[in-house]
Design brief:
Glutaredoxin; 7 helices
Length: 192
């Protein structure tokens, strides 16, 4: 009986995910501003971030000081090669490009990195609700000819399905317990 009930709940969750995706896409709008970002190799426009793809995921990361953002980026980096077969992906923060590269290299990240520092990009898309108060998440963009449209966006929130550790922790008897992410790469175990 338990397995049948689990399957029922999983089916409902799949239906709710599909409904949520449809709701997110209802807010699709054209991008009317030409954004330019700094990288270690110079400036790149939003349009250039697409490369040869028609879709782009911009991962909003609060920078090297946020262990939660680091956990999300670690997980996305692990499936980056799969994502990049379907869409362009960049990791954006307000850190300076050299600091981004140094931190990404130390973590083994393979993302294209862009800095939104000095732009209104994060604010314009709702990821900077107050000056210098950044929120993490992801924006999906789509190219339609020469125009770019916001396809959907969402914010990261501990416990969501966008960071692989949270769903896996639900399988453990005590869930995540007192676990919190860290920028350390150590396998040090926490006391439970």
């Amino acid at each position: 009986m338990t397995v049948e009930r689990e399957r029922e709940v999983e089916k409902k969750m799949a239906e709710l995910r599909a409904e949520l995706a449809a709701l997110r896409h209802e807010h699709a709008t054209p991008v009317t501003q030409e954004y330019r970002f700094r990288t270690v190799d110079g400036e790149r426009s939003l349009a250039e971030l697409f490369g040869r793809m028609d879709d782009l995921l911009v991962i909003h990361n609060m920078g090297s000081g946020c262990p939660y953002c680091t956990a999300y980026a670690d997980g996305i980096n692990g499936v980056l090669h799969h994502l990049e077969r379907r869409t362009a992906v960049v990791l954006l923060s307000n850190d300076e490009p050299d600091a981004q590269k140094k931190f990404a290299d130390a973590r083994g990240w393979r993302f294209d990195l862009v800095s939104a520092s000095g732009t209104s990009f994060s604010d314009d898309f709702g990821f900077e609700p107050k000056p210098r108060d950044f929120w993490p998440g992801v924006i999906a963009f789509r190219k339609h000819g020469d125009s770019i449209h916001l396809a959907a966006k969402t914010f990261f929130d501990p416990g969501d399905d966008l960071c692989v550790v949270w769903p896996l922790f639900t399988l453990l008897e005590e869930g995540a317990a007192d676990w919190t992410p860290t920028n350390s790469t150590s396998k040090e175990k926490i006391a439970v």
